[in-house]
Write a structure and sequence with these properties.
It is a single chain. About 50% of the residues lie in helices and about 10% in strands. The protein has about 450 residues and is an alpha+beta fold. A five-stranded mixed beta sheet has the order 1-2-8-5-3. It has a three-stranded antiparallel beta sheet with strand order 4-12-9. Helix 7 packs antiparallel against helix 13 and helix 14 packs across helix 19. The structure holds protoporphyrin IX containing FE. The site of protoporphyrin IX containing FE has 27 residues, from helix 12, helix 13 and helix 19. The site of protoporphyrin IX containing FE (HEM) has 27 residues, from helix 12, helix 13 and helix 19.
């Protein structure tokens, strides 16, 4: 038997389900609505229909690649202004997706990770140098500093380009332009399809155009810096793409697509990892027993030595802290899935080819399979025996299937390395009055979260 998809009770003509809508925090707003409507529900905004799914059984089916594939939800589709047919924003059928995927896959193997290790340590060293000067009680802005670190890491490992993040008092203007572009995409998602909406966003569109222009200039500068340095550069993402073009490789991509890949990696490669690190530090500062255990592990596994590549993955408990932080707040909090055949979701909700839903990841991560108190922060949720006791497909911070995150191992290696470095060096003290507040700009980020540092 088929069932109707629930929707909010007060549905207005034309405007739809706009009562109680919050355009600054649409994700948290949808989680709130889901609490009463359940694991699948619909929101109609100005005639745009959004279906959100988060039930473990539903997401398991949506992960079946023989029936479903990635869908570019409106908030992501509007990012094509920035990323074009780059990896993240490419439609499944676009030839540049498989070309770039094949071309860049070697940059995400274990041996590639090994080659980034040194640079990741260097950047973590710059963070501690920067933080050492702030151990006098001045609180540090965690998200801002984690963003310096992750932007620097992807710039140098991927493109051998430094943003000089730790030499600046303010964030690199790339960050502000990117945040502007992401926020713009999010805010205009609901309104863009109506004429009235387009009128309302005209000024913001002009500001956005300036941000996009600036981001394109940075990308040009990154490529120019490489070209100026002679023909072959260091083995990095950019070199893989430029070399394929030079050598007329069957998977070579053209100049415009290379630029789309560069901006894609600069954005996707740092914003979400920065949020993940910030949430992890937030939870560590709130859970002294977890912090003590994590630090004891770092002291035992690393001692006072500079950690080797293999010693990062040995921080099993720190890894569980990261996994658990990404359970509660997956920093890329939703992804779209569309039916590739006529089908019925969990035997109840018919879907025609092209029909799509958004997987609401934080709600999936609070499904009853996660136990009686899914809001509680508990790294032991990721003990191997607990993982085995849960069904598959209930943990999706990196998406699913062929279009899942290519940078997952990169992000995990970087984040565990950095958390270990911080825990070993500092006592971290959060502001006891701070209430977790989450900013949304397609991604999630703790807002206004500070730490006081003391060298141990
Ligand atoms: C795709 C999350 C770090 C590059 C994705 C997707 C998710 C995700 C959910 C799938 C989106 C969809 O289905 O529409 C995350 C999180 C990260 C992270 C939570 C950190 C904690 C990274 C890093 C890089 C990266 C470090 C690059 C170095 C990409 C790219 C794609 C992607 C290129 C598109 C892949 C494709 O469609 O072929 N990521 N990501 N991500 N991510 Fe990540």
């Amino acid at each position: 038997d088929t069932a109707a998809i629930p929707h909010p009770r007060w549905r207005l003509p034309v405007l739809g389900d706009v009562l109680g809508i919050n355009i600054r925090t649409p994700l948290q707003n949808s989680m709130e609505i889901g609490k009463t409507l359940g694991p699948i529900f619909e929101r109609d905004v100005l005639g745009n229909r959004f279906v959100f799914a988060s039930g473990a059984d539903m997401v398991a089916e949506l992960s079946d690649e023989s029936r479903f594939a990635k869908h570019l939800a409106p908030g992501v589709a509007s990012l094509r202004e920035l990323g074009g047919d780059g990896l993240f924003t490419a439609y499944n059928h676009e030839p540049n997706w498989s070309k770039a995927h094949n071309l860049l896959a070697p940059a995400f193997t274990k041996s590639a990770m090994r080659s980034y290790h040194r640079t990741m340590l260097d950047v973590a060293g710059e963070l501690t140098e920067y933080w050492d000067r702030r151990t006098d009680g001045t609180p540090v802005d965690v998200s801002s500093d984690m963003t310096k670190l992750t932007l620097e890491t992807i710039g140098r490992t991927g493109f051998s380009y430094s943003f000089d993040s730790f030499e600046r008092s303010r964030p690199h203007p790339f960050v502000q332009a990117m945040v502007g572009a992401l926020s713009h995409s999010q805010r205009t998602t609901f309104v863009k399809t109506s004429a009235l909406g387009r009128l309302l966003t005209r000024r913001a569109d002009r500001r956005n155009a300036r941000n996009l222009e600036y981001l394109a200039e940075v990308v040009d500068e990154v490529i120019r810096a490489r070209r100026g340095s002679g023909d072959t550069g260091p083995e990095d993402l950019l070199e893989l793409m430029l070399r394929a073009a030079r050598e007329d490789h069957p998977d070579k991509i053209d100049e415009l697509n290379i630029r789309h890949q560069v901006v894609t990696f600069l954005v996707a490669g740092h914003e979400t990892t920065s949020g993940a690190l910030s949430f992890a530090l937030y939870y560590l500062s709130r859970h002294p027993e977890v912090l003590a255990k994590a630090r004891a592990e770092v002291d035992e596994v690393w001692g006072q030595e500079t950690p080797e590549f293999e010693q990062i993955a040995k921080l099993r408990y720190v890894r569980r802290v990261l996994d658990e932080s990404l359970r509660l707040w997956p920093t890329a909090p939703a992804y779209g899935r569309e039916a590739t055949v006529d089908t019925t979701l969990v035997g109840k909700y018919p879907m025609k080819v092209g029909d799509w839903v958004l997987v609401l990841i934080p709600a999936l991560h609070r499904d009853p399979v996660w136990g009686d108190d899914p809001e509680a922060f508990d790294p032991d949720n990721f003990l191997p025996e607990r993982i085995r006791s849960r069904p598959a497909h209930v943990y999706k911070p990196f998406g699913t299937g062929e279009r899942a995150c290519i940078g997952r191992q990169f992000a995990v290696h970087e984040a565990v390395l950095v958390l270990g470095t911080i825990l070993r060096r500092y006592d971290i003290v959060g502001d006891p009055d701070y209430q977790l507040k989450i900013a949304e700009r397609l991604t999630l980020m703790p807002e206004g979260f500070t730490l006081q540092l003391r060298c141990r």
